[in-house]
Structure formats: structure tokens, C-alpha cells
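Q: Give me the 3D complex with adenosine-5'-diphosphate.
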Amino acid sequence: MLEIKGLDSGYGDVGILHNISLSVSDTEMVAVLGSNGVGKSTLMKTISGLLRCTAGSVTLAGKDITGLPPEQIVEAGLVQVPEGRHLFNGMSVLENLLIGNTAKHARPRQKELMEHIFELFPVLAERQAQAAGTLSGGEQQMVAIGRALMAAPKLLMLDEPSLGLAPALTHQVFAALRELNKQPLAILVVEQNVSLALATCDRGYVIEDGEITLSDDAAALRQDDRVRKAYLGM
Ligand SMILES: Nc1ncnc2c1ncn2[C@@H]1O[C@H](COP(=O)(O)OP(=O)(O)O)[C@@H](O)[C@H]1O
Ligand SMILES: [Mg+2]
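A: Here is the predicted complex, encoded as C-alpha cells.
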């Protein structure tokens, strides 16, 4: 579904990512792991077209999307849930969801997509008229995920969905992602909670200092001494 080859990216003259190659198959849920400041969000932003890469290529479902503007990347089926959620706090849950329904292929499916989101997150159906800013952090994350799903993505990308959430809600969000992944929906998720990410995802990539230094099945990464020491506190 997603194939990234030799990607370099950064800000102005400052190179942050070097030679990143990674893939996500149609049925996979894949984690990107790493400490603060190693370039995970930079990678998400580069893949979704918010930042321009200086080398390499990004292919989605066989289509070269390298360097396309963000809205065309959404049209192609790659949708990001940004770090910090970025909801319109004064607007209702329903209005926030509808904002995500912009992709051409998704618009005729608005009702069906909305019903599916309410099935996945019943609390959003109950609160559809409530202002997004008055929801709990977990519910806001559900709205952000729902908004991305309204674009009927082929690949869903999330940047730190657990940030600021209580553990129970984090588990609920990851259970929902796993449920979505079974549809199937390809998922690429950046997560600081390495233990949870490796318990939920099929595979993972570890980024250090802008480079991928490890990649393997989640089960193998859980057993890896470097991962255990650096990220699992063992
Ligand atoms: N808008 C920006 N301008 C310049 N440098 C940035 C910007 N955003 C992030 N950086 C730098 O890029 C590096 C990687 O940041 P980031 O991708 O946000 O890391 P992570 O998401 O892994 O915590 C850091 O050194 C950070 O200071
Ligand atoms: Mg980040």
C-alpha cells in the first residue's frame, strides 16, 4: 500500500531525515518508534506532503505521490491524524467530522462513513451536537480519527494518538485502530508508548537521529535487547 524509498527531508537547510525506506502492506498496522526529536513527526509531515522531501520517493497503492500537495495526497487515499488533533474546538463533533469529508471519492459515501464511525465510537454518536472543545482528550482523539476516516482513506497515518490520554483511553483508541485495521485498512502509527505499539502493531521501525536503525516484526522487536533497554525500561 505504502512504499517509501530513500527519503531525505528537513527544514530549510537543516537535514533531519536521511535515507528512510519503509513499507506498509494493504493489511498491516505498522509502528514508527523513537525518542523525542528523532524525526518521527517530520516523517509524517513529509509523507502527507506538508513538508517537501529533498530525495527519495513515496508511492501509495502503486501511484507516485512524491511532492504532491497535501490535498492531492488525501485525494489519493493517504490521510493523517496530526499530533495534537487540531480540532475546531468551537464547532460540534458532527461539523468536525464533516470537515474531513472532502475527498472526491468520499463525498458520496458521507452517510455510510459517518455510520461506521459512530459504530466504532458510539460515544461520538451521543455527543454529535456537542462542541469538540468540551470533550475529554480521548473523545477528541476519536473525533480526530473519525474526521480522517470521513476521507475514506486507503492508508491512515497517526502521529502520537496516545499523547495526553489516560491509559484506559489509550487502550481504547488502540483497540479501535486494530479493529479498523481488520477491515482491512493499512495503518502507520507513530507512538511513544513502545510497549503498547509493539503489543498492537504487526511490525515496527525504530528511528534514531533521523535514520532507521532497526526494523522487524513486533514480536521480534519486543525481544530485542536494544529495544528492551532503550524503550521498554528493562
Ligand atoms: N518547524 C521546524 N523547523 C525547524 N526544525 C524543526 C521543526 N520541527 C521540528 N524540527 C526539528 O526537527 C527534529 C525532529 O523533530 P520531530 O520530527 O518533531 O521529532 P519527533 O516527532 O520524533 O519528536 C528536531 O530536532 C526538531 O527540533
Ligand atoms: Mg513528534
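A quick observation: The first helix runs from residue 40 to 47.
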